[in-house]
């Protein structure tokens, strides 16, 4: 866990001014840079000490065998694991005859700053070697948003108080030693040295290495080029071997003298392109980078971010910590998504190797909704990736005896990589989640090209899946049996409320998309009978309800199960899945993460206000939040049913998931969905934002800790600004055509004039709620700026 | 599959007179010899050709890692696998300068006979080598029922028509090459050479080898000693190395001359005893065997079997094939159980390495009921083994967060070895099954020592488990949620009817055992409150019932699930679990094996006759019999509800499971439960035998194919003979005190006089039944003797 305050609280940056090796791995995740194609963990320039070295290329993976004590039909035989590719950020430094290593000598000053507007990670160190030679090191690193294949580092060393010999070794290193590889020795063997050298060449200051993975057969090229500015007599030479390419710069600095270097490095990978083609691709990218130069890259980066923040910023007054966290979150979302270009958006982005680098349903349900209203082109990219995997998803459905498409629970390339089907393949809701993201994006953007091409295809194939997966019972009700909903503490159950409601929407959205694009639909062999079947199934969808309790059971029979014995479950036994068997979790009323509550957010139309209040109270008492995906949804519904202070606590948990390492696994990468959750809790929670069917609604209501909440978002070509205080909300149209909005249920037109509406008083809710003992969300202590 | 007729149909033997290498592995299983301690597959004396070499010692196993693609709390980390120990049955023969190998040369005559009264496997061969030298080989092999550690082979070679040089090499061989080891390379590595040599000594004609397993640390000693009778000039010498001990006999036979040899071999194993102690134990056993001599062993064997058959024989007139099969089955049951002595009774006995040599619930539910009424002392042994594993079962319950004992789904030593919990740990009914076997044995034998010692302890700890596993719902009903019943095509469901009814009996039997042994129960900390809790839970037990259909759903919600699409499921897609994912099987109405139907057999008191008829018809249409455990139970209930001809077909399937290799896996060993099933189908099915609470009831009714059915069984110290024709049943008391019996519901006393009662007419049942298309039991073609 990152002890507070690990980072300074400030509005536009994440700043560390003390090096704590105990949380080095966590800081590598939060200081990671990425553009959605290249990801660099925030490893120190000199490589060591490190928590976990990491350089990732989106979509680049190695295969490893998935073993089973007892196999079964349809179990995936191999998994895909993100590979730590050639490290291009490594710059070693020798001071006199001692390596610059912060574990030795004296670190007088240390600072790392992730600048959310500049899009750079800067680092300064004032260090004396064990023999007393002092240097100042300053580096600035960026992964370019505007040049997809390029990263760059500006690196300076200054001799402080005596003449100093320096040697800088700037490297490309493949097959770095990894810290951990999990328990399976065969997997570890595969990943210990995943890259087979194909080429390592030097020439004209350019170093290029090409490698290939053993099993997946993917090829990766990395290249580097340097600008060096040192005193006369500075020597430069280059060496290379299969797995290391090195440029060595030796110089002697007078006191106050400085060696400056800019390192440009570039990556390309491909399944199909040849070694020479990849080599040339990387060389070309480096040539373009040299043309733009360091200043050009830096300026482009800022301009790109200015544009992003103009349409996406969220202002939070009264809680500086949350202010910082929500911008930090938006920045990482943008980093994970900006240059996706038909690649997946993994749960950890490209910030760590957690979850094997896989993408899950949380991308569609938590990350893409934020991007839909702030950076929609990334959503089109992410969903185009899903569409590109349709042949694999159709094949998987066929293997499972179904029709349509069965998207994988977890994957990099598109094949199912889940090795435990009750919490993997059985979680068919992922298909409705993807369909939801498609429909939401089309609603928000009216992107007709996408709608007819990507959207229709995904909606049709997922609707086909639901019709094959469910059946009409003797009474005519449409049932979906034996599936797993979002709550992973119940599995393989009948008629999960979330799944059925999302499938219902999926079926209807598919029928509507077909109606919008009859010719394109005909090309997919969609018939009138088929869409009638979808509409009938949606109409007859089973949504179980417990009349006795007046609540929706998470799935059929759920409310008859035994309650979890929270009284005898000590705090050290969370997360429960690490301390109790699945069988025990599955058969009791204990909830890992919002499930019915998530359904109430995404399908609010299917519940009455009274049902929402009762369901929320019922599930609050059962939900342990052993998943990072829960707090933001609980915030949204807590706010909707009037528990504003509780919502505020949940906001804090979502927002600080990684900055405070609440789940204790930020070491493996940041939690994109939780980072998105800060925005969701603020905008959908306290802003009351709901959109769909061409309507954009707000219902702002602030907790005591937030005095003003303002956010910008895009909807159907308009850029809006919403600014709420406790008393009133001001709406402004910043760009685009006039738009009709809803404020606390009242519709109004927004054009050139700012519109202000009072926020109605919110009486305290009648129903008290409580959480399982010890699982209450932690209270927010509003953090004063500079405090 | 063994093509018919592979074996001659005769009443007291299994005879093969043609060598078919395609089914060699299957014949090795059916010709296996065992006494429950030592098991020898029916490999040819000369070792090759072979299907799978096999020599097993009950309880002797190696550990191997159980891998998981995604692990979980409480998953077993290592499995136990039966080991092919030192092979003592190997006798190689060199004829002239050519090895006696039936794949070469000409086999003029071949016969193998398993004699069910002699307890021997005899083999004769008349063979000419490729160069034309002819020999006759005769061998007789036995594993002694009366000398637990001893096996012996009488081996003769006769020169037929010319002077012939012979060399016989009689061996002990450790770490034989195995044919197959499954898919996991790590497991294969462990089991490729499981035995580490500790000692190999020769002296005074005695050869002894001691080995130890690498991981489980078990020690095994094997020894051999020979009597050799050959012409003058016969040479004998012995050699040994770590893994091979060899006695070589070289002789020259005149035409018609014979070399005779008797090989005695012996085994001992231990977890604790030292190398010298085990060495001496084996040497002592061999000394005892030499004292008794071959003829003595052979005569003891027959006397032992005469005694067994006197109390256990079943006569079937009209169907010679079933007559042979039921005796074959009883013989293998006896072989698996005779000398258990607190060791498990595995699903395949000691006839093959199938299921890793594990014991499952089928021992208690199918095998022990037969032995309870035919050879009860083995039942006491088998259940004493379960009792000896109580500390492990209690620890497992604790690990799972439960109280009492959670016996393993599959094991050799007592630890859970199931690598797939939904069809392993979740099948908690195994605990009630063990309790059922305990109660049935106590009812049948009134063995008070067992009752107070083994029985009470097992009943108390299993009752505790059920109370921890279930809970009273808001309406006060006792529910058992999230468990798996016998039908493995539905898993992790609520209120499985079989499980709940068996748990109900378990709770009641435990309370009654406590009432019988208050002092012993107090020593187990049983209180009045605790037994009251058991009785209350039993009283309030949930037994779901579908009022609309008038049937018991296998578990809650089962009858609302979609039906399996049998129309599109071709015959090549059975067993379904190899061609469809679990998720699809679990959520549909498709039944692997009798579940509600088994409950109707074992808890017939809980169903009305009309319910039995409706339930049977309902589940017949859903049951695919992908398990060898189903046919006999379907036979029993088909007979009870009046479908006698259908019952007769199921009898045929159970009886011929291994003789006709119906499941195509007899290669891995014979199916003890199916072999028991032939007896169950005959005695409980057509004999209508039900026992419990001191009452023994019969209701004989024969199908057209059986003209007379007679069986003997033991109950409360009495040995009964029951002989039924279509018209009437004759009851005789062969030994023991007079007894009150029930014939078709009418009670009568049986003393010295034979009692004959007419069998009431059985009208054809009203309800027609059908099976899934293509899954109908195959018609019986009554087999004429000699036909």
Report the span from N to C terminus of chain A.
20 Å
Q: How would you describe the shape of chain A?
A: globular
CATH superfamily of the domain at 31-309 in chain A: Glycoside hydrolase, family 65, N-terminal domain
Q: Name the biggest interface.
A: A-B, 55 and 55 residues
Q: List the total number of helices of chain A.
A: 18
Radius of gyration of chain A: 27 Å
CATH architecture of the domain at 31-309 in chain A: Distorted Sandwich
Report the CATH topology name of the domain at 31-309 in chain A: Beta-galactosidase, Chain A, domain 5
Q: What is the spatial order of strands in the main beta sheet of chain A?
A: 1-2-10-11-12-13-20-17-16-15
Number of strands of chain A: 33
Domain Glycoside hydrolase family 65 N-terminal (chains A, B): 16-271
Pfam families (chains A, B): Glyco_hydro_65C, Glyco_hydro_65m, Glyco_hydro_65N
GO molecular function (chains A, B): hydrolase activity
InterPro entries (chains A, B): 6-hairpin_glycosidase_sf (IPR008928), 6hp_glycosidase-like_sf (IPR012341), Gal_mutarotase_sf_dom (IPR011013), GH65_N (IPR037018), Glyco_hydro_65_C (IPR005194), Glyco_hydro_65_M (IPR005195), Glyco_hydro_65_N (IPR005196), Malt_Pase/Glycosyl_Hdrlase (IPR017045)
Explain this structure.
Two copies of one chain form a homodimer. Chain A has 787 residues and is α+β, with helices and mostly antiparallel strands. Chain A is 31% helix and 25% strand. The first copy, chain A, has a domain at 31-309: Beta-galactosidase, Chain A, domain 5, CATH 2.70.98. In chain A, the strands form eight sheets. Chain A has a ten-stranded antiparallel β-sheet with strand order 1-2-10-11-12-13-20-17-16-15. A five-stranded antiparallel β-sheet of chain A has the order 9-8-14-19-18, with no helix packed on it. In chain A, β3 (33-34) and β4 (38-40) form a beta hairpin. Chain A is globular. The first copy, chain A, starts with 7 loop residues before the first strand and ends in a 29-residue tail after the last strand. The model of chain A is unreliable at 783-787 (pLDDT under 50). Chains A and B meet through α13 of A and α13 of B.
């Amino acid at each position: 866990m990152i002890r507070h305050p690990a980072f300074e609280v400030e509005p536009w940056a994440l700043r560390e001014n003390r090096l704590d090796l105990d949380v080095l791995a966590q800081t590598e995740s939060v200081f990671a840079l990425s553009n959605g194609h290249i990801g660099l963990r925030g490893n120190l320039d000199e490589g060591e000490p490190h928590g976990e070295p990491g350089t990732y290329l989106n979509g680049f993976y190695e295969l490893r065998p998935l073993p089973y004590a007892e196999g079964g039909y349809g179990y995936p035989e191999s998994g895909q694991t993100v590979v730590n590719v050639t490290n291009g950020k490594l710059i070693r430094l020798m001071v006199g005859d001692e390596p610059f290593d912060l574990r030795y000598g004296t670190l007088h000053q240390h600072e790392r700053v992730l600048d959310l507007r500049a899009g750079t990670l800067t680092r300064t160190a004032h260090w004396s070697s064990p023999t007393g030679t002092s240097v100042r090191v300053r580096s600035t690193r960026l992964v370019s948003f505007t040049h997809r294949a390029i990263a760059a580092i500006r690196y300076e060393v200054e001799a402080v108080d005596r003449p100093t010999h320096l040697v800088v070794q700037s490297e490309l290193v493949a097959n770095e030693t990894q810290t951990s590889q999990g328990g399976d020795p065969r997997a570890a063997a595969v990943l210990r040295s995943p890259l087979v050298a194909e080429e390592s060449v030097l020439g004209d200051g350019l170093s290029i290495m090409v490698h290939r993975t053993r099993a997946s057969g993917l090829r990766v090229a990395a290249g580097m080029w340097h600008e060096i500015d040192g005193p006369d007599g500075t020597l430069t030479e280059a060496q290379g071997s299969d797995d290391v390419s090195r440029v060595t710069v030796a110089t002697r600095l007078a006191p106050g003298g400085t060696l400056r270097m800019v390192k440009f490095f570039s990556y390309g990978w491909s399944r199909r392109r040849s070694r020479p083609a990849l080599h040339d691709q990387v060389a070309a990218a480096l040539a373009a980078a040299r043309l733009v130069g360091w200043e050009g890259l830096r300026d482009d980066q800022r301009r790109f971010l200015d544009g992003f923040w103009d349409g996406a910023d969220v202002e939070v007054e009264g809680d500086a910590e949350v202010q910082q966290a929500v911008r930090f979150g938006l920045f990482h979302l943008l980093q994970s998504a900006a240059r996706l270009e038909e690649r997946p958006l993994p749960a950890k982005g490209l910030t760590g190797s957690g979850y094997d680098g896989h993408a899950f349903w949380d991308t569609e349900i938590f990350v893409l909704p934020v991007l839909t209203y702030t950076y929609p082109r990334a959503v089109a990219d992410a969903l185009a990736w899903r569409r590109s995997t349709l042949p694999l998803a159709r094949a998987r459905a066929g293997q499972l005896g179904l029709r349509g498409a069965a998207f994988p629970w977890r994957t990099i390339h598109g094949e199912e990589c889940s090795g435990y089907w009750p919490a993997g393949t059985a979680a068919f809701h992922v298909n409705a989640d993807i369909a939801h993201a498609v429909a939401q994006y089309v609603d928000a953007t009216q992107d007709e090209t996408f709608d007819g091409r990507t959207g229709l295809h995904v909606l049709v194939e997922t609707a086909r899946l639901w019709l094959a997966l469910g059946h009409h019972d003797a009474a005519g009700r449409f049932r979906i049996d034996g599936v797993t909903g979002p709550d992973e503490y119940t599995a393989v159950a009948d008629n999960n409320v979330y799944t059925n409601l999302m499938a219902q929407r999926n079926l209807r959205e598919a029928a509507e998309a077909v109606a919008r694009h009859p010719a394109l639909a005909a090309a997919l062999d969609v018939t009138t009978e088929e869409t009638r079947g979808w509409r009938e199934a949606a109409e007859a969808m089973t949504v179980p309800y417990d009349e006795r309790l007046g609540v929706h059971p998470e799935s059929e029979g759920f409310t008859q199960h035994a309650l979890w014995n929270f009284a005898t479950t000590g705090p050290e036994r969370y997360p429960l899945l690490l301390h109790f068997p699945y069988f025990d979790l599955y058969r009791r009323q204990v909830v890992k993460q919002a499930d019915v509550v998530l359904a109430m957010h995404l399908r609010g139309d299917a519940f009455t206000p009274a049902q929402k209040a009762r369901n929320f109270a019922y599930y609050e008492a059962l939900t342990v939040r052993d998943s990072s995906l829960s707090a933001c949804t609980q915030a949204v519904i807590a706010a909707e049913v009037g528990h504003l202070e509780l919502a505020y606590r949940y906001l804090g948990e979502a927002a600080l998931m990684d900055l405070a390492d609440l789940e204790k696994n930020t070491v493996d990468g940041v939690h994109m969905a939780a980072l998105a959750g800060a925005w969701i809790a603020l905008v959908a929670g306290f802003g009351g934002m709901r959109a769909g069917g061409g309507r954009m609604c707000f219902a702002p209501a602030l907790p005591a800790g937030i005095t003003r909440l303002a956010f910008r978002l895009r909807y159907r070509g308009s850029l809006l600004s919403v600014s709420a205080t406790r008393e009133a909300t001001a709406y402004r149209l910043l760009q685009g055509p006039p738009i009709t909005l809803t404020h606390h249920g009242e519709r109004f037109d927004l054009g050139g004039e700012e519109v202000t509406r009072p926020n109605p008083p919110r009486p305290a809710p009648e129903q008290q709620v409580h959480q399982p003992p010890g699982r209450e969300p932690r209270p927010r202590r509003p953090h004063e700026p500079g405090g």
